Amino acid sequence: MTRIRDYENRKRIGRQIRQMREDEGMTMVKLAELSGLRQTTIRKIEAGVFDIGIDELSAIAQALGGELNIEKLFNVNHQEARSWV
């Protein structure tokens, strides 16, 4: 069960990162350049197949404007996000 939830969370995070990147009018190449991550890593993150950690999230957040908004990233409301802590 945990593996399924983890996969679903990775997919959700990847979709949100892609949406945030596209909202900024940024290509994967540019996001990779600004974040210091490889383009293949960005592609895998957006596809939900990369087990992303806080370091990668932080680098992407900084590249996308410097703020890591968990609610937006996970596409959940405040109450649901607090239930994970």
Structural key phrases:
85 residues; mainly alpha; 6 helices; 434 Repressor (Amino-terminal Domain)
Please identify the top-level CATH class: Mainly Alpha
Ranges where pLDDT stays below 50 over 5 or more residues in a row are none
Distance between the termini: 19 Å
Q: How many beta strands in the DSSP annotation?
A: 0
H and E order = HHHHHH
CATH-defined fold name:
434 Repressor (Amino-terminal Domain)
Name the CATH architecture.
Orthogonal Bundle
Largest sheet: none
How much beta, percentage-wise?
Answer: under 5%
The CATH fourth-level homologous superfamily: lambda repressor-like DNA-binding domains
Tally of separate helices: 6
Portion of residues in helices?
Answer: 55-70%
Number of folding domains? 1
C-alpha Rg, in Å? 12 Å
What spatial form do the alpha-carbon principal axes imply? globular
How would you describe the overall organization of this protein?
This protein is an all-alpha fold and 85 residues long. The chain has a single domain, classed as lambda repressor-like DNA-binding domains (434 Repressor (Amino-terminal Domain)), CATH 1.10.260. The protein contains 6 helices and no strands. α1 (2-23) crosses α3 and α2 packs across α3 (39-47). It is globular, with a radius of gyration of 12 Å. The model has no long low-confidence stretch (mean pLDDT 83).
